[in-house]
Amino acid sequence: MISRYRLRKLLAPTAGFRRSLVVTLLGVASFLVGTALSFRAVLLPVLDILSRESTNLVGRFVPPESREMATHLLGGAFLLLGFYLMFLGARLALRHLIATLNPKLRSPMAEVYWRRQQRDQGPNIVALGGGTGLSTLLRGLKQHSSNITAIVTVTDDGGSSGRLSQDYGILPPGDIRNFLVALAEAEQAMTDLFQYRFTEQGSFSGHSLGNVLIYALTRQAQGDFEKALEIASEVLNISGRVMPSTLDRVRLRAIMEDGSEIVGETAIVDSRKRIRRIFLDPEDAQPFEDALEAIAEADLICIGPGSVYTSVIPNLLVPGIAKAIRQSKAVKAYVCNVMTQPGESDSFTASEHVMAIQANVEGRLFDYVVTNVARPSDALLRKYESSGQHFVEPDIDRIRGLGFRVITGDFMNETDVVRHDPFRVAAKLMRLVEG
Description:
- The chain has 435 residues and is α/β, with parallel strands linked by helices.
- The protein folds into 2 domains: 4-116, no CATH class; 123-153 and 245-434, 3-Layer(aba) Sandwich (Rossmann fold), CATH 3.40.50.
- 52% of the residues lie in helices and 13% in strands.
- The strands form 3 sheets. It has a 7-stranded parallel β-sheet, sandwiched between helices.
- Strand 8, helix 16 and strand 9 (368-372) form a beta-alpha-beta unit.
- Helix 3 crosses helix 4.
- The radius of gyration is 30 Å and the shape is elongated.
- The termini are close together.
- 37% of the residues are buried.
């Protein structure tokens, strides 16, 4: 049986075009009927004259026994010429219109149309997490679909986000800003503007301009954070939606291996103690309803990558989020990190990332674990080890022993840093959806 997504993909190039074609055909038919009824007395004599002249013209060059066939062929030639001239005129008009509206368009129109239709009819994707890991992956996912919902962790209490949240009572905007930029279709100058960070001394020192703009939009929207995100999304022309898992102000509370309790994401990471359990404070935060709806309608739910305790798990602790994921019929995959996180997942293998989620969130949330098996260069490993980060060992058999299906491959993008290659990971996830 063909899946809902595969059917949408099959019909993608004709989406929207089918309706316009039907309307056009109805318009042409209506015009012809109206012309025949209203101008019959005028048209019939003209048509008779044209028919006689055409027959006479054909008769000069064609024997009598072939004149009828030749007349039909001449009529067909005029029909084809008429259709071609109409097509050519419409094409020239469309090119002029597109060149006027979008002077910087360089790709052929047919290619642009096909690509956008494919993306518009792409799978409904929900991505949950925070930090640079998931924002990187979003850049790959948006090549396959415009129907992406990024659900963001809102427990960040450090840096620019933490200061704005503490001083003005808004949700931490940092991860939201990164996700907006990752999904943006706007000009590079606009996305660079959102990512600009003030470095000079003063009240703006350390702040990201995008964070400040989100705060300003929230004030302009009379404190409506949801409305502020809608405006920011329009400004950046994003492929999909970005939303918090909850609109409530929450923070993280962790029980460490030594029994101590630490509150606050930054304090938890800076303690460099091994985490036993992590909780939301307060635990009864209300889930964002649009997030629950997106999960219910998803074809693919992607959890991670990102810091397992401070980016991945917090979304899943919001009441209702994990339950919605469990009830969803979507393909559900966890994308495991490539490198460990200092003070959070020190020396963790891939299976230990999975077990950390299982230990903190009730029930089975995903069926697939996407794990990188390619190793970075020795020089880059030494660089990371000097800052307390290590390669996440892909202990595949142990993950399978936990009952998960493992998707392995070279998913690494190695430059001066080690990150996932968003396009390879996204392509692999799309193959899971396509079956």
